Amino acid sequence: MTAQEVERSVSAIQSAYSGDFPRTALILGSGLGKFGDNMEIDTIISYDQIPDFPQPTVEGHAGRLLIGKVGRTPVVCMQGRMHLYEGHPAAQLAISIRTFKRLGVENLIITNAAGSLHMDMPAGSIMRIDDHVNMSGSNPLIGLNDDNFGPRFFDMTEAYDPGMKDRIASAADALDIKLFNGTYVQLAGPNFETPAEIRMLGKMGIDAVGMSTVQECLVARHCGIKVAGLSLITNLGAGLSPHALSHDETLSEAEKAYGDISKLLIHFLDQLSD
Questions:
Q1: What confidence category does residue 61 fall into, taking pLDDT thresholds of 50, 70 and 90?
Q2: Is residue 241 classed as helix, strand or coil in its secondary structure?
Q3: Is 86 marked active-site?
């Protein structure tokens, strides 16, 4: 990924949207795309209108930028994300985040669908991501560093912003929504994990597993964007679940649990406007 690619993406978005760009970005994971229905939308930009933006190929990921408001809060929403397992080079996944940085984004909220490693955190649960482990085998920042975005070596002690974590907890309390918190791990996918892998991850202290999020968090923290993360639990991990795992189950369970995470996001975004 080059600085020129980022600038081309910035120019394309600015050509399509001339207003003040939102300071908050939201990435919608599998099954959460319809959150855009909660927005007062000013502009919709298809990813294929943005040069060098990777194109999503997975069901449930529409591939559009929605620019507008959720309640009082201006938001740019990625309705669909890109994954390593689709064949996109890790560095290419940095383009969207760095484009947002150039446009003035300060806060990034990342959502995903994930598998639980705990029987008492079943499908339908919401987990606040407090930390992560990168087991994807890649990092989007490998290669020459662009000092215009951030330093070669950067701290990840607070990968997920403490202030935003507190606000998520406050929003959940206000709505009487049970909120779990824990450590998320990203594997490359596209296969679901084996029971042996789930047992290993559990012994490592992992709480939820998925195939996204960590790459985006790394790029955002490198360039100084604050990050919050939420996992919508759509299944128990292999060996814990009584049946075979599937993407259809992911989408189905996300649909069932959509109401709570939608309300939580709306309340949390409202707090960000204060």
A1: low
A2: coil
A3: yes
Q: Which helix (H) or strand (E) holds 161?
A: none
**Annotated binding residues, as ranges?**
30, 61, 81-83, 113, 193, 212, 235
**Which residue among the candidates 7, 134, 247, 258 is catalytic per the annotation?**
247
- According to the model, what pLDDT value does residue 115 have? 95
Binding-site residues for a purine D-ribonucleoside sit at 193, 235
Asked if 65 and 77 touch (Cβ cutoff 8 Å), the reply is yes
Half-sphere exposure of 241 (CA within 13 A, CB side): 22
> Cα–Cα distance between 68 and 214 in angstroms, integer?
26
The secondary element (H helix, E strand) that includes residue 68 is strand 64-70
Distance CA 178, CA 241 (A): 22
The domain defined by 3-272 folds into Rossmann fold (3.40.50)
pTM above 0.90, yes or no: yes
Residue with tokens 């919709």, as numbered in its chain: 44
Residue 131, pLDDT > 60, answer yes
